[in-house]
Amino acid sequence: xxxxxxxxxxxxxxxxxxxxxxxxxxxxxxxxxxxxxxxxxxxxxxxxxxxxxxxxxxxxxxxxxxxxxxxxxxxxxxxxxxxxxxxxxxxxxxxxxxxxxxxxxxxxxxxxxxxxxxxxxxxxxxxxxxxxxxxxxxxxxxxxxxxxxxxxxxxxxxxxxxxxxxxxxxxxxxxxxxxxxxxxxxxxxxxxxxxxxxxxxxxxxxxxxxxxxxxxxxxxxxxxxxxxxxxxxxxxxxxxxxxxxxxxxxxxxxxxxxxxxxxxxxxxxxxxxxxxxxxxxxxxxxxxxxxxxxxxxxxxxxxxxxxxxxxxxxxxxxxxxxxxxxxxxxxxxxxxxxxxxxxxxxxxxxxxxxxxxxxxxxxxxxxxxxxxxxxxxxxxxxxxxxxxxxxxxxxxxxxxxxxxxxxxxxxxxxxxxxxxxxxxxxxxxxxxxxxxxxxxxxxxxxxxxxxxxxxxxxxxxxxxxxxxxxxxxxxxxxxxxxxxxxxxxxxxx
Length: 493
Hints:
Blueprint: E1 2-4, E2 19-23, E3 26-27, E4 33-35, E5 43-45, E6 53-60, E7 68-75, H1 103-118, E8 148-156, E9 160-166, E10 173-175, H2 184-200, E11 214-221, E12 227-233, H3 240-250, E13 254-261, H4 276-279, E14 295-299, E15 302-307, E16 309-314, H5 323-336, E17 344-348, H6 354-361, E18 367-372, H7 375-387, E19 395-399, H8 402-409, E20 418-422, H9 431-440, E21 444-449, H10 452-464, E22 467-475, E23 485-492
Parallel strand pairs: 1-2, 5-7, 12-13, 17-18, 17-20, 18-19, 20-21
Antiparallel strand pairs: 2-6, 3-4, 4-5, 6-7, 8-9, 8-11, 9-10, 11-12, 13-14, 15-16, 21-23, 22-23
Helix pairs in contact: 1-10, 2-3, 5-6, 8-9
C-alpha cells in the first residue's frame, strides 16, 4: 500500500520497501530528483525531474545521516523539460544521469549547481555577494563526444565476452555497445574487441575468483581519426597477438595496440608504479606510472593529437575526453592571459601540457615549467615540446607532486613574472601545494576544475593567500552527465 503525502502530512520514518507518493523539488548534484517535503530525511530518486509527481519505492535508508534512495514505480506527471533519452542503456548504466533532461535545461541546472557550491564563499567577489559565474558553455554536440573510453570486461552465457560499465552502487556490468556518448568509431572497435576475444577463447576476468584474462579495454581516438586500443589483462594469453591483429584488420584506423599486464586483485584500472604519496592525487581516469612493463602489440605506444598544439598521448596519459570542449577552454584561457606580462608559465598537474603549451603560443619569449606525477604524461609532454622546437630552458617538465616540485622552485632565481595553471584531479589541490604556490607569488592563476565542491574549497584557501577570484566559467565537458568543468581566473591582490 502506498503512502500518499498531502499538504501537512509527514512520513515519520522511512523503511526499505516503503511505497510513497512524492514530488521532486530540485535536482541533486548527482542528477537525482530530491524529495525533501514531508519526509524525515531527503530522498534521492533517479529519473525524476523537479515538479514531477511519482509513486516511488524506497530502496536504501542511510544509517549515517545521508539521503535515502528510491526508484520510480509510476510517474504521475511529466516535466516540460523531460525528453526521451537517446541511449538504450539509460537507467541501468547510470553514467548519463540527466540524459532525460532537455539540453538547455541541463546547462541551466549545471550553472545553478556551480553557483550553489560557490555561494558559501560569501561577499568577497562581486555581484552583491554571489560569485561571478558566467553562463555554462555548451558542448558543440551533446552526444558522440567521448574520445577516450574505459570498458569493463565481463563474461556472458551466450556472447562469452561483453564490454561495459559498472552499474551504479554495484559491480554488475552493463553492456555499453549502444552508448551514445562514446565516439561512433570507438563503439565499433569495442564491439570487435569483444567479439574477437570470444572467438579466440580469451576469457573475461572474474574479480571474485581471480580467473580469466581480459579485465579492461581502453580506447582513444585522436583528431586525425586514429585509434589506440589498450588491453588490460591479468596475464598474457597466447591468443593476445592474434586478437590485436584481428582488430587491426577489421579497423584500419587502429594504429596502436598496447598490452598492460595487471594481475593484482582489486578493480584498479592499471598497475601503478609511483610513490604512495602521489596516489592520493590520482583519479580513476587519470592513469599514471611507468610504462616499462607495457608491450606494444601493434604500431607505437602513443598517438598524436591536435588540440591547437600537437600533443603526444600514450595510454597512461590523461587528456580531456571531450576534444571540442577542451579546445575551447584552451583558447579561452590563452585569450584571458594574452595581455599579461610574464616570463614563466607554471603548468601544474599538467598532464601532457596541452593547456600550458597553448598559453605559451601567446608569449613566445616566456618559458614553460610543467609538473605531473605521471611518468608517462611527462614523457609525452617532453616529446611534444621537443617536436615544437621547445628545447632547453624554453620547456622543462618535472615528475613529482606539485608541493614537492614547487618547494624546489622557490629556491631558484630568474623565474621572473609568473602565471600558474592548475588542473588537479577531482579531489582538488592539497593545502601544501597551494601554500607552496602562494610562496612563489604568480600574478595570475587559472584553476581548471572538474569538481565544483573542491574548487570552492581551494578558492577559499587561495583567498587567504591573497588571491581574488575574478570570474568562474562552467563548461559542459560531459553532456548528459552531472559532471561540470569549471575555469576560474584569479588575480593576486
